[in-house]
């Protein structure tokens, strides 16, 4: 049996979009992701790894819904160790997505919340966007001699800070905590307009992911996302 391509996401909604035929989807947060990915590979092997999902924008002017195809993934928790995406995969996706950025991604261990912190990370790394899974995917891929690619959609632009309610609404497993959002709004109702903008941005990112998933499936071959693990 041909080993699958393993697609890695950090959020359940990302994993739902990634599901399809032909590969294994591993959905986990960064504290368990490496172990979950290793377990999936031990079960059925892998032909390659794909980091798929959303990312926070770091370049001013990049709007929600913008695809970023990583040239390199910068492992910021490891003093910016660099991992180069599989050139054939990354180039094929870039050609199929004329509006996508071919740029570096910063891998981080915690959300980059404020506009000031995003600007600081951009100055430090030069990366177009940041996420919490791609650097772990890259580490595991290198350890096993596998190709990998990171294809991420910007969900929050560099110029905006996330309101506290947006973070209060995230459980440790990536699912949504509605009560947490409501409690945060009760403490500070003035953050509601910013929270509504977050919802609009998330909707744009989801639309882009659904469209882009079909392109990823076509260009990487043999389908995209059959079995969901950890969802």
TrEMBL record:
<dbReference type="GO" id="GO:0008782">
    <property type="term" value="F:adenosylhomocysteine nucleosidase activity"/>
</dbReference>
<dbReference type="GO" id="GO:0009116">
    <property type="term" value="P:nucleoside metabolic process"/>
</dbReference>
<dbReference type="Pfam" id="PF01048">
    <property type="entry name" value="PNP_UDP_1"/>
</dbReference>
<dbReference type="InterPro" id="IPR017831">
    <property type="entry name" value="Hopanoid-assoc_phosphoryl_HpnG"/>
</dbReference>
<dbReference type="InterPro" id="IPR035994">
    <property type="entry name" value="Nucleoside_phosphorylase_sf"/>
</dbReference>
<dbReference type="InterPro" id="IPR000845">
    <property type="entry name" value="Nucleoside_phosphorylase_d"/>
</dbReference>
<dbReference type="GO" id="GO:0008930">
    <property type="term" value="F:methylthioadenosine nucleosidase activity"/>
</dbReference>
<keyword id="KW-0326">Glycosidase</keyword>
<dbReference type="GO" id="GO:0005829">
    <property type="term" value="C:cytosol"/>
</dbReference>
<feature type="domain" description="Nucleoside phosphorylase">
    <location>
        <begin position="36"/>
        <end position="159"/>
    </location>
</feature>
<protein>
    <submittedName>
        <fullName>5'-methylthioadenosine/S-adenosylhomocysteine nucleosidase</fullName>
        <ecNumber>3.2.2.9</ecNumber>
    </submittedName>
</protein>
<keyword id="KW-0378">Hydrolase</keyword>
<dbReference type="GO" id="GO:0019284">
    <property type="term" value="P:L-methionine salvage from S-adenosylmethionine"/>
</dbReference>
């Amino acid at each position: 049996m041909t080993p699958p391509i393993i697609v890695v996401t950090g959020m359940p909604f990302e994993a739902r979009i990634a599901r399809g035929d032909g590969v294994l989807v591993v959905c986990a947060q960064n504290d368990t992701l490496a172990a979950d990915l290793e377990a999936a590979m031990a079960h059925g092997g892998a032909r390659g790894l794909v980091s798929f999902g959303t990312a926070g924008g770091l370049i001013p002017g990049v709007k929600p819904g913008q695809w970023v195809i990583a040239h390199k993934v910068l492992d910021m928790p490891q003093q910016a160790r660099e991992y180069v995406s599989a050139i054939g995969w990354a180039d094929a996706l870039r050609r199929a997505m004329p509006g996508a950025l071919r740029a570096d991604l910063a891998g981080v261990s915690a959300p980059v919340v404020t506009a000031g912190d995003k600007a600081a990370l951009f100055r430090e790394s030069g990366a177009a966007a940041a996420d919490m899974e791609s650097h772990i995917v890259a580490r595991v891929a290198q350890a096993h001699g596998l190709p990998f690619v990171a294809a991420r959609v910007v969900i929050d632009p560099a110029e905006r800070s996330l309101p506290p309610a947006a973070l209060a609404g995230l459980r440790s497993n990536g699912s949504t905590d509605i009560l947490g959002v409501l409690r945060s709004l009760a403490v500070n109702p003035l953050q509601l307009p910013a929270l509504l903008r977050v919802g609009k941005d998330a909707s744009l990112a989801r639309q882009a992911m659904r469209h882009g998933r079909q392109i990823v499936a076509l260009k990487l071959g043999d389908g995209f996302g059959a079995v969901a693990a950890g969802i």
